[in-house]
Design goal:
With 317 residues, the protein is α/β, with parallel strands linked by helices. Helix content is 28%, strand content 21%. It has one domain (8-15, 28-315): Rossmann fold (3-Layer(aba) Sandwich). The two termini are 20 Å apart.
Length: 317
């Protein structure tokens, strides 16, 4: 089930209408070539401190003993502008909602969503499932508030701040437990999925979209070409996702989404604006000069980023 079915391409390249980047004089140019990243400008991504322009700014060793709190804080700070930059996330939410809508379910299913963010999957599901008993959760109160401010859900709904990896406050008995591009932030993905599976009633489904190994391979390649190490987290291969779900029926397949950016700086901006900035453990941020070199390498290679999205669907016998 691991063979990619389709390649989804989203184009925001400089040649697309309205997507040309301009320098201070109004001329099309790459921002990292138009400005000196070692001095301050009006663009916070080109500040003197190179960590300010990197999507995965490093947390000093020992400074943060609560990674879950850090993730919640980063996503909370992005809540108000998340939707404007969640291009792939929106596509994936719709695709996941379609998959869930195709599953057998009772007339008024009991649905748990983990990591709802601003409600992209929440609203896509509401349009497809109709009346349900909804429990909508996120680790970030700010994200949850944005989701709750959306159109009212058909049926009954509750919104709760929950750590999806350790959902100890939830009673279970769900027909559907679902999550779109959130569980990749779990410290231990497979054990977290196993805990979520225990919240299902018999015949219920665990359905998730998460990120797999080839995600952002273009960004990693740009670093490796220069002998540098990227801060992007390591993602698992699709075939090991859900390995702990031995009492469940189902599996995983993956689909690549290729996003064409205006340039490398736009790629970094999008990551920062959706809160996806928690670095791989122990990563040391690049210098300003190194970052400019990586951006140039990334642009010369086409300024694309791949999201290798793994869709997992498991049924509890």
């Amino acid at each position: 089930m691991n063979k990619p079915h389709s390649v989804y391409t989203i184009d925001r390249s400089p040649t697309s209408p309205g997507n040309m980047a301009h320098d201070a004089d109004g001329n099309p140019d790459h921002p990292y070539m138009a400005h000196d990243a070692d001095r301050s400008t009006d663009d916070p991504y080109m500040a003197a401190d190179a960590t300010a322009v990197q999507p995965y700014a490093n947390t000093p060793a020992g400074a943060d003993n609560a990674p879950i709190t850090s993730i919640a804080t980063r996503f909370g700070a992005a809540a108000q502008h998340y939707d404007a930059h969640a291009h792939v996330q929106r596509e994936v939410a719709v695709r996941l909602a379609d998959k869930i809508a195709d599953l057998p379910r009772p007339a008024r299913p009991k649905v748990l969503e983990i990591g709802c963010g601003t409600g992209l999957l929440t609203q896509a599901l509401a349009q497809r499932l109709g009346a349900a008993d909804w429990t909508i959760t996120d680790i970030s109160p700010q994200m949850l508030a944005v989701a709750q401010s959306g159109p009212a859900l058909p049926g009954t709904a509750r919104f709760q701040v929950v750590d999806g990896e350790h959902p100890d406050s939830l009673n279970g008995g769900y027909d559907i437990v679902c999550s779109s591009l959130a569980v990749q932030w779990f410290t231990d993905l497979n054990n977290g999925l196993a805990r979520l599976s225990r919240l299902l009633k018999r015949g219920g489904y665990l359905v998730v979209a998460t990120l797999a190994q080839e995600t952002f391979h273009e960004w990693r390649t740009a670093h490796q070409a220069l002998g540098l190490t990227p801060a992007t987290p390591s993602y698992p291969t699709s075939h090991v996702i859900g390995a702990n779900l031995t009492d469940m029926c189902g599996g995983v397949h993956s689909e690549p989404y290729v996003y064409r950016h205006e340039n490398g700086l736009a790629f970094l901006r999008d990551l920062r604006h959706i809160g996806a900035t928690t670095p791989a453990p122990g990563h040391i941020p690049l210098s300003a000069r190194q970052l400019r070199q990586v951006l140039k390498q990334f642009d010369q290679s086409g300024a694309t980023s791949t999201y290798q999205v793994a869709y997992g669907i498991w049924k509890k016998p």
